[in-house]
Every structure is written in C-alpha cells, then in structure tokens.
C-alpha cells in the first residue's frame, strides 16, 4: 500500500512536516509495512518556504536585510533541493520574511512610511547566487508602496522632479517623476518569476490595496485616501515612462493590489506572472509524481471550512489526486462552517482532531498527540476493508 501524506501546517502549533510526521506515526500503528511518501505542502502564505524546503530537502538562506521601517531585520528564503523542469535552481521567498507586519510594532504601523526594500534584497541575493527561477509568496506585508522599495533594491532609480531619490514609503510615491531602469539587476531578464497570489484586488479604488489592506497596516481613513492617490500616480508614471514594455491596464489586473500593490510592482518591473499559490507549490514539489500509483492521499490544514475550496492546500492536493483517481482524506484541527463544501468537490472524508472542548492553549500544545491518535483511528477504520470475513 502506498500512502501520500501532503498536509499544510497547523498554524501556531505544527509545521507541515511535523503534521506529516504525526499522521505517518498514527497510520504506522495499523499499517506498519505501508510505503509512506511525505510531501509537506503550503498555499503560498506563511510557512510556504519551510514546507517547500522540507518537501525537497532544500536549504534555508538567512540574511540581514532592510526591514519595513528602514532598520535591519533578520530574514530568510529557501532554495529547493531539486531542479525545476528546465534544470534550474529555484528560490522560494516569502515577502513577509523581510517586509512583514510582524517586523513593525503595533504603535509604529504606518504604511505611509514602510518599505518593501528588504524583499528586493532577498531577490537580489538569490539572483547573485545564480538562481534563475524564483517563487515569491505575497501576503502578510506591512507595506503599501506598490513594490517601489523592492524596485529600488534591484537597481531601479525612482526620483522626484528635482532628480532626488524617492524616500521609503507609500506617501512618497506621489512625488515620483522619473523612472530609470538602466541599472535594474541584469539577471532579471533571464529569470522566471512566479508570484503566489490568492487575492484578485486591483491596485486602486474601493477594492484596491489601500482600501482593503491598508487598515490592518495602520492606515486611517485619511491615510487610505492619500495612499490610493499615491498608488494611482505611481502606476500612471511607471506605465507612461515604460509604456513599451508595460501593459497600461496592469493596475486593473486581478492581484495588482496584493501585498500593498506589490502585485503591480512584480508584474511591471519583474515581468512576473501571478498564479494561485497552491498550484505553484504542487507543481514545484512534483506532487503529481508522488501520487502516481498511490492508494490513498491524506491532506489537511488547521481548519477546514467553506473557504478551503477556494485555493487552500487541501483543495489543491485534491485536484492533483483526482487527476489520477486516488482517494483523498482530509484531517484538520477543527471543522468550520460549510466544511462539507470540499466533500462536494470529491474529497472522501474529513476528520477534526480535537477530542473534547479545551482551552486554545491546550488545543495547540496537544496538536501532535491528537493528530497521531486521529490518524491511527482513520487507519483502523480503513483496515476493516482488508479484514477477511
């Protein structure tokens, strides 16, 4: 029997690899001789780097970069342990690692000032190491600068009418007058950049970056209006001065408003493509190959609910397994409203692991034990079909 275990992390308790190990431990109590293939998964959000490094036996690169407030922060990215289909190394970068909200104390959150420069430094480091395939996960950012800081870190000169370099922050975008890409990192042209993006917000307007994501980054109503105007001016200037290589409608592209407008920045300057995160991950870790000739796939995440079918890890794993007619079981910390939506999509069963009402702290601390016990019970039920009458 071949069993593929491909879960996401259980946030705040277990990494994706730890989840996979716990499930394997439980199943081995019933099926000790089965072949187990553990493939830690993610959907492009927090934990994607660790999951993909674990899944491919890659490595973590630790760096000190420029944080959202302009001061140094410790950050990281991953290099996958297997080459892609064109024979190139792949770097996996989470924007939040360098430019995330967790780097900014609550009292100092101000998207008028925060920068994505550190994300650009991570990209530059990967390029300098000879890597020519980059996967960039958006989400959790503290910035609203449309990737301007990232552009500056990669050599783009952004300046005002007096040719003074733009300072960091979303507010400064209003003064952009000159865009010079002559010193853009030369390896960009040879690099394939895929962006894991699971939102469809445009850059500006009532559904844009400032209005939807600004408040969680510290933006007041007045700031939102200021930032939206700044993004609009920035986008107009970028497309006007680089019109030969940039789609004038890029600001309206679904996902352009992701991560404070970083979606717009990577599409325009890096010629990146925006894709659902889980699709990028499943392809990069070669999940379909693991599922070949499998008898069962087990996936899961911290909470399965009605939103899971909209691009979350269990749905991505289900889609891959369905293509090879392999049954799928989901395991989660808990089940939320409309969790059965994923059953309608073809998942065979879903199981929560919490055995009783408990304080949250206890639930999180006992996740590994509860997960192993649940996996063991699922395996025991499956074993009934092999019992001779």
Automatic annotation (TrEMBL):
InterPro entries: Glyc_kinase_flavodox-like_fold, Glycerate_kinase, Glycerate_kinase_RE-like, Glycerate_kinase_sf. Keywords: Kinase, Transferase. One of its GO terms (molecular function) is glycerate kinase activity. GO terms for biological process: organic acid phosphorylation. Signal peptide: none annotated. PANTHER family: GLYCERATE KINASE. Belongs to the glycerate kinase type-1 family. This is Glycerate kinase. It comes from Shewanella psychromarinicola. The lineage of its organism: Bacteria, Pseudomonadati, Pseudomonadota, Gammaproteobacteria, Alteromonadales.
């Amino acid at each position: 029997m071949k069993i593929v275990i491909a879960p996401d992390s259980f946030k705040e308790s277990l990494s994706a690899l730890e989840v996979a190990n716990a499930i394997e431990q439980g199943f081995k109590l019933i099926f000790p001789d089965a072949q187990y293939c553990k493939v830690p998964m993610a959907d492009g959000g927090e934990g994607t780097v660790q999951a993909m490094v674990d899944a491919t036996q890659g490595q973590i690169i630790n760096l000190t970069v420029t944080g959202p407030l302009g001061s140094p922060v410790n950050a990281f990215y991953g290099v996958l342990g297997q080459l892609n289909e064109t024979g190139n190394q792949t770097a996996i970068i989470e924007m939040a690692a360098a430019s995330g909200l967790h780097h900014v104390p609550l009292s100092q959150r101000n998207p008028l000032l925060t920068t994505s420069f550190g994300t650009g430094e991570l990209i530059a480091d990967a390029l300098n190491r000879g890597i020519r395939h980059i996967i960039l996960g958006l989400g959790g950012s503290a910035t609203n600068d449309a990737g301007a800081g990232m552009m500056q870190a990669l050599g783009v000169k952004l300046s005002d009418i007096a040719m003074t370099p733009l300072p960091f922050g979303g507010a400064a975008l209003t003064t952009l007058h000159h865009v010079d890409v002559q010193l853009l990192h030369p390896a960009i042209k040879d690099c394939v950049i895929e962006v894991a993006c699971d939102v469809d917000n445009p850059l500006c307007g009532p559904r844009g970056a400032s209005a939807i994501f600004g408040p969680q980054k510290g933006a007041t109503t007045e700031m939102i209006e200021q930032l939206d105007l700044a993004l609009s001016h920035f986008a107009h200037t970028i497309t006007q001065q680089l019109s030969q290589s940039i789609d004038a409608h890029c600001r309206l592209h679904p996902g352009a408003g992701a991560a404070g407008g970083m979606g717009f920045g990577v599409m325009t300057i890096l010629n990146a493509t925006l894709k659902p995160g889980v699709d990028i991950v499943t392809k990069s870790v070669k999940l379909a190959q693991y599922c070949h000739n499998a008898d069962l796939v087990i996936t899961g995440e911290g909470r399965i609910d009605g939103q899971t079918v909209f691009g979350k890890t269990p749905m991505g794993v289900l889609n891959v397994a369905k293509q090879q007619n392999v049954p799928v079981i989901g395991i989660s910390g808990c089940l939320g409203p409309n969790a059965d939506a994923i059953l309608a999509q073809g998942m065979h069963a879903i199981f929560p692991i919490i055995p009783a009402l408990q304080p949250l702290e206890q639930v999180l601390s006992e996740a590994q034990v509860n997960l192993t016990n649940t996996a063991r019970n699922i395996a025991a039920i499956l074993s009934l079909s092999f019992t001779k009458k």
